[in-house]
Amino acid sequence: MIVKKEIMAGDILLELEDVHMYFGKVAALAGVSLKIRKGEIHSVIGPNGAGKTVMMNCINGLYKPQQGIVLYKGDRINHLKPHERARMGMARTFQKVEVFGGMTVMDNIRLGRHNHYRSGIFSGAVYIGKAKREELEHRQFIEEEIIDLLEIEHIRDKPVGMLPYGLQKRVELGRALALEPELLILDEPLAGLNLEEVEDMARFIIDVNEEPRWQVTCLLVEHDMGVVMDLSDRVFVLNFGNMIMDGTPDDVQQNPEVIKAYLGEEDLYATRK
Amino acid sequence: MSTTWLPCGVYHQNYSQDQAWFQTNFIRGKMILLFAILFIGIPLVADDYVLSVCNQIGYTVLGALGVQLLIGFCGQVTLGHAAFLAVGAYTSTLLILEFPWPQVLLDAGLAYPISIFVAALVAGIWCVLFGLPSARVKGFYLILTTMAAQFITVDFIITQYVSQIGGRGQAFSLPPGTIKIGPWVIDSDLKVYYLMLVLAILCVSLVVNLLRSRVGRAWVAIRDNDISAEVMGINVIQYKLFAFFVAGFIGGIAGAFWISNLAAISPEHFPWFWSLWLVGVILIGGVGSIHGVIFGSIFMVVVMEALQLIIFWFMELGFAWAQPLFMDFLFVKEAAFGLAICAFMIFEPNGLSYRWWQIKNYFNLWPFSY
């Protein structure tokens, strides 16, 4: 039985303790520890292939780490399946958009509220009373809270598969928000967006994090350093499955090891020329 | 293909209007007209031959609806659906013939309706049993495991064991008067036609309702992207099995309905080709569309009947080549089936329902096509 537990702002929401994940003999994560406090935006950066997405998949339940503990609100959740973790209030978006292409925008977002709907197979088949009332209640929530926030009114009846990439990313964020999550895992939400869309998306992330209505804790994986340094409360740097450091954006920018492993790429590129 | 454009000047003021089935009075009128034609018009003008063709269409709709649900809406490709029709038909027949019904129920004519419901439940559970592999395998491999349903159920269990119950040999004959609903004995094409209409409308509305509520959305999500469906909190295995249950349930209703049209049932009524045929129906009608089931069924049944009539006509005119074709019409039918699917895959992969959608939008938006 999964019980929703209330925790205070500033408490530790999610904790990874010495997590190891191997694919054959390759160590994708070699002993990673991470603490995320409620209410913050915690970023994970690192070069390609550093294991960032693997780490998200371990948190999310798509991968089961071979060693180490994943704690959510103080409970060990290693054994829980992704859908059970979603029920505990964990939502995510994907690096490559994984929307339901054949469904409309509205239905995609409705699907995100799957756990908030109560009707089952019988009341759904009859569609009078409970199921119908519920559809209308949730429709109102979706229209007023999500579609309005993300400014996607004009496309709500369009099939998502036919939308441009930037809007698909936005719909995916909307779908994750519909779950009313406490922890939102954003796996490269800005990849492939143009400047205007990046600004919009960064705005949405701040809104979702700071507005009293939402106050969602965000775990952000991103390559756009400008956005990461501006948005994050803390930054976690990963390289080849090992943690380099976990600190405030300013500390990270000063750290010589981080500059060598990741931030300094630009200088390297310049010297090669 | 999703929403249909509404005519100019239709403004909704609340969500319940926007989510209603019949959004304008014109649409409601069209639907009432359709029901009037189905319930009053066709029985008035049609002779027994036309009615029997309609019954075949209805049977195909009921059978293909479950296939559409599994393939078109849940993405679980199945090639053994005739097995669940057979389970439904045999459960219903055995219940009618062998079950010691209390005289009260027999007099009230409830034996057959109850047996339809029980048959649907049994077929649903049987379908879940063969849906279990879907927890582990998908796509091509699932096709093979669902084909196993056909061979295990029809060719093995029903032919070898179930058919021997009561020592009747291969076929179970249904004596006249056994199929009775309330005061009506189902003994003419017209009565079968009305039974078919009621069951088809019930099943179609059941599936449509499911598709616009929580369960149906979860199915479509699993079809489109099962990993992100799981991440969004859907218990994928549970919902796949739900889909198999509902598909089997409708299959069971289809099978139990069809015995009302038959004097005897035998395993030959549910060959593997019939499973394939049902998949062909949804391919031609349009995968992932309820309209597709209906259009596909009408197309397949009517085209095959027309083909038979044409060959018969040629035979009457004295063409020698038409004689063997008419004698072996089954092979002609199979060839035409293959040809029709090829043609549709090449020229209209979205099926007949897509064409219907285009036509409907053309008229709704006329005279401005934007």
Can I get a quick summary?
The complex is a heterodimer of chains A (273) and B (370). Chain A is of the alpha/beta class.
Structure description:
The complex is a heterodimer of chains A (273) and B (370). Helices cover 40% and strands 23% of the residues of chain A. With 273 residues, chain A is α/β, with parallel strands linked by helices. In chain A, strands 6-7-8-3-9-10 form a 6-stranded mixed beta sheet, with helices on both faces. Chain A has a 4-stranded antiparallel beta sheet with strand order 2-1-4-5, covered by helices on one side. In chain A, strand 7 (183-187), helix 7 and strand 8 (217-221) form a beta-alpha-beta unit. The radius of gyration of chain A is 19 Å and the shape is globular. Mean pLDDT of chain A is 88; it is low at 267-273. By secondary structure, chain B is an all-alpha fold. Helix content of chain B is 71%, strand content 2%. Chain B contains 16 helices and 4 strands. In chain B, the strands form 2 sheets. A two-stranded antiparallel ribbon of chain B has the order 1-4. Chain B has a two-stranded antiparallel sheet with strand order 2-3. In chain B, strand 2 and strand 3 form a beta hairpin. The model of chain B has no long low-confidence stretch (mean pLDDT 89). The chains are: A alpha/beta (273), B mainly alpha (370). Chain A binds chain B through residues 60, 62, 81-83, 86-87, 91-92, 94, 98-104, 107, 110-112, 114-115, 117, 119-121, 123-127, 131, 135-136, 139-140, 143, 157-159, 175-176, 179, and chain B through 1-3, 15-16, 19, 206, 209-210, 212-218, 220-221, 223-225, 227-236, 242, 245-246, 288.
